[in-house]
Write a structure and sequence with these properties.
Helix 3 packs antiparallel against helix 4 and helix 5 crosses helix 6. The protein starts with a helix and ends with a helix. It is built from 7 helices and no strands. By secondary structure, the chain is mainly alpha-helical.
């Protein structure tokens, strides 16, 4: 009953998730293609002194770059953890799992969960209960690695305290959905 309720709940939110992913992709595309023009337009609209405006724009740029690097680093760290766990526990398709983890790591609240769940189910089906339990533990640890790596990278470049960056990411996700990963810390 619990599994059915969870699946139905996920299915109910699927259209919203797909819409947010599409909007995030479109926004990312236009920011990459025409970001400088948008920045120039926004700079003229900020009603503060020019020197303060320049500092705000510079801070915005540094934080945005930091968030992207932090997300890449967190996804790579989770991919390495999943690759090693698949290799060490004897689960096939370890490199496919690492690639899937890198992609799933960009989706908030999903992360590497689908990958380690598949690995744990495979090991359970092979009657390797201890290995399945280890896969679950490693999967949960990989989720925590995301939080630490992302916070440390954000701290390094944007000089933001790791706790503040972590809270900003989760607050951004709550406020803006998937785009909150980027907009929260900014």
């Amino acid at each position: 009953t619990g599994a059915t309720a969870t699946i139905v709940g996920l299915a109910a939110h699927l259209p919203n998730i797909v819409l947010q992913l599409a909007l995030a992709s479109i926004a990312g595309f236009f920011l990459l293609v025409d970001g400088h023009r948008l920045l120039g337009w926004m700079t003229d609209k900020i009603p503060i002194a020019a020197d303060v405006r320049g500092q705000v724009v510079q801070s915005f740029q540094e934080t945005a770059i930091s968030v992207i690097w932090a997300t890449i680093a967190a996804a790579a760290a989770q991919s390495v953890v999943m690759l090693l766990s698949y290799l060490l526990l004897g689960v096939p398709a370890a490199f496919l799992a690492a690639g899937a983890t890198f992609l799933f790591a960009w989706i908030p609240l999903v992360g590497c969960s689908p990958v380690w769940l598949v690995g744990a189910i495979y090991l359970y089906a092979q009657a390797a209960m201890l290995k399945a339990l280890i896969m679950v533990v490693v999967g949960l640890m990989a989720g925590l690695v995301d939080n630490f790596v992302r916070s440390l990278i954000l701290k390094g470049r944007s000089k933001m305290h790791p706790l503040v960056s972590l809270v900003a990411i989760f607050g951004g996700i709550e406020m803006f959905g998937i785009m909150g990963i980027f907009l929260g810390p900014i």
